[in-house]
Amino acid sequence: MMKNYRFLAVGLLALGIVSCEPDLDNPIDETGDVYENGEADFTHYVALGNSLTAGYADNALYITGQTNSYPNILAGQFALTQETDEFTIPYMNDNAGGLLAGGQPLPGFNNRLVLASDGAGNNSPSIYTGMSATTDITNILEGPFSNMGVPGAKSYHLVAEGYGNLAGVQAGMANPYFVRFASSPQTSVMADALAQDPTFFSLWIGNNDVLGYATSGGVGVNQAGNLNPATYGSNDITDPQVFAQVYSQMVQALTANGAGGVLINIPDVTSIAFFNTVPNNALVLDAQTAGNLTAYFSAVSQVFAGGLMAQGVPQEQAVALASQYAITFNEGPNRFIIDVPVTQANPLGFRQMTEDELIQLQVDQSALASGYGSVNLTAEVQQVLGLLMAGETPTQEQANILFGGVNGLDDADVLDSTEISEIQTATASFNQTISAVANANGLAMVDANALLNSVADGGLSFDGGTVTATYATGGAFSLDGVHLTPRGYAIVANEIIDQINATYGATVPKVNVGQYGTITLSNEVQ
Amino acid sequence: MKKLLFLTLFGLAAAMTYAGGYRVGLQGQRRLAMGHTGVAVVDNAELAFFNPAGLVYLEDRINVSFGASAVFSDVVWQNEEFGQMARTDSPVGTPFYAYVSYKASDWLTLGLAAYTPYGSSVEWPTDWSGSHLVNNIDLQAIYIQALASVKISDKLSVGGGPIYVNGAVNFNRNLNRTLSDIDGNRANVTVDASGVHAWGWSLGAMFNPTDKLRIGANYRSEIIVEAEEGHADFSNVPDSPLTPFNDTRFDASLPLPAELSIGASYEISDKWLVAFDYNRAFWDVYQSLDIDFQDPAVPDSENPRNYKDANTYRFGAQYIANEMFTLRAGYYFDESPVQSGYFAPETPRNDAHGFTAGLSVNITEKLSIDASFLYNRFKEVNESYDYYMENGQNVPFEGTYKTVAFVPGLGVTFKI
């Protein structure tokens, strides 16, 4: 009988030595075995920045956007290399995205955009109405938070005390997003970040120091030369010296305890979908309309020259000045007419757009279809044209009616060449600062400017196709045309990882861009 | 006894992949303990599956065998390039068998058999990296067969009979790698069909050149299970005419491939028996898993599989220790039918080494308890499934896979 028990014992032993859990030779979940953090210490990573850092997309901040923010993507990959603290995020309350203050909708902070479709090929970005906003900024979250990205923040806002003070929101002195998670009404973003004693940080700030100016069509002020940011409006360009000073200070503070980090520079705003969706030559005409417009502007030019001569201007000079208004139009695409300030050289205050000038995404498309950006051929205007054809000389009043037919694009809808050059000058200067500060402190530096230029210029290929800057379908830009999609943020995260690996001798793995989504479809819109 | 009955009933609800493809080679505890050899072993009613021709050589008038196994099998996947990892948390599969033979006359034995030779149950974490290929699958097929075994002479017999198959499938996967609703919940589809039936047959022959040596051959036909009017339920699809995925019906067919077995057994002494089986599973029939949705707005799903025929080589030995105990052990090498580049995580199978052992305890002369244990060893493998398409472009899903399976089983043999 002893023998029989022995058989059973052998059987049971056999059961005991096999494990049910399959084990790989090099499992990646044993942190540090496969991937190295190198000289970087990702134990406590804090991300500083603006909307791009917060994961803002589709004109709003919402939960899934925050989850797909590049800092959260990075934190997930950092955790494969070493033990890290949990990456905390001041999550919004919903995926609708709008803000409330004391139960009332906060003006200017609407729900996110979604792509609505009529099923017949007409798709339009629309505000999501499937649910009302539930994120109330008076509901202060308990921090600290690793993702300190504050939508709307400019460089100097990060060091501004009281930037999270609820009482300052209405006056525009505080930021409602920071109100939600500031440790106190008096604190600054930087103070809350430093209080966490980060071992590693990322800083992507300065975009709004030019972006507000750009998206407003340059209606703000270029503050170059004004060293007091307290006097700046939200649509102004920050003085490069102000930027340089505040930026260096921030990096100095962040690196004071020996923390490593990565600095991300400022993309060229002309590379974003916001300015590359409505082409400046979208005035598509048939032959007859083109002829009519050419005739109209020829009439404007002649009448204007006639008026000048009537005032005693020599004919040669009058014709030379008026000739700029004899704009010719051809069958097919033509560039729009824009309004410009009245000057001696351009007394009527309009001209045709030049090749590199840009129209912003939110321009009224139906207005464009009915004369906005060219001529408003009213009955009165036609009447005057009729008189001219009959060989009559128009009165001053009739001439004014004729000139009044010109319906140029407003300054706010257009980035003209002067504005573009102001923005590019400032951006180049900011980026010089960022590069110099990165070098001086031995930090990693990501050229987001070059990255987004390559997205705009041909696109970046991934395992499921190519990501381009084309609005709605390109994959990089969310429906606001300024902020990125999860896929766009994943591309940024991969570039950051590349630079961190190069600078710190780390082997942080990249993420699979194809597994990150783009825009969200929904017909739950008004 | 009650517990076994429970196991048997539970077996109706779940079965598990554990041989190449979705073949489940667990059709008898005694045979499994010998490496699942048995096309030329005359021992008990398990012959109903392995080679019905042998049933007529069973000495007793009535032979009954039934049992079930508990399949513990899991897979781990990782992609080192992107730092991704996932483990299956598959339910314990419980394939079963039940066989009865009745000696009607000296030359004729009749039988009935029920067994589960195909099945698969794999459960990946929902929305894992390969969720566009599979989140979870549960595939079952129960074979019920009537048998006749005819003795032509003491040296030669034939046997076989018609097979009725009743199958069910439930399969969930995400519609693609990214589509989700407003809250980020991934859009997915569940296809479900049950009570799907089909017919097939098996035929075997046994030749005994000496009283020590037996040679056997058995062929089980291919059975194509056609699911018609199954349910396709779509979840978390965005509310948009651009994604017109409404719940609909679907048609699909899944082949249960034919299998040929040839083998021999030799009685070395009163105590020792050795056996060898060669199986060839004709997996080549499984070229593509195509799901045809009835709603024309829902694009049909075509998933190339391109399986190839696969061989299994089995070896077993039996030692009669004493009146009470019979010990068995075996080994087999099981080729995967999956070709490189077609390694889909719904049946993540590479070549397997099977190590088996078991014993029978003769409670009385008539009643035995049969126990077996199988351990499957798989090599770690770097593989990919290259035929998932996105925007007209193949998007490979690749990584390192490692599978582990062990299968304890218990059965009863009864003879009068």
Automatic annotation (TrEMBL), chain B:
InterPro entries: OMPP1/FadL/TodX (IPR005017). The keyword DNA-binding does not apply. The keyword Signal applies. It is found in: Cell outer membrane. Keywords: Cell outer membrane, Membrane, Signal, Transmembrane, Transmembrane beta strand. One of its GO terms (cellular component) is cell outer membrane. Transmembrane segments: none annotated. It is a multi-pass membrane protein. SUPFAM superfamilies: Porins (SSF56935). GO terms for molecular function: long-chain fatty acid transporting porin activity. Belongs to the OmpP1/FadL family. This is OMPP1/FadL/TodX family transport protein. It comes from Zunongwangia atlantica 22II14-10F7. The lineage of its organism: Bacteria, Pseudomonadati, Bacteroidota, Flavobacteriia, Flavobacteriales.
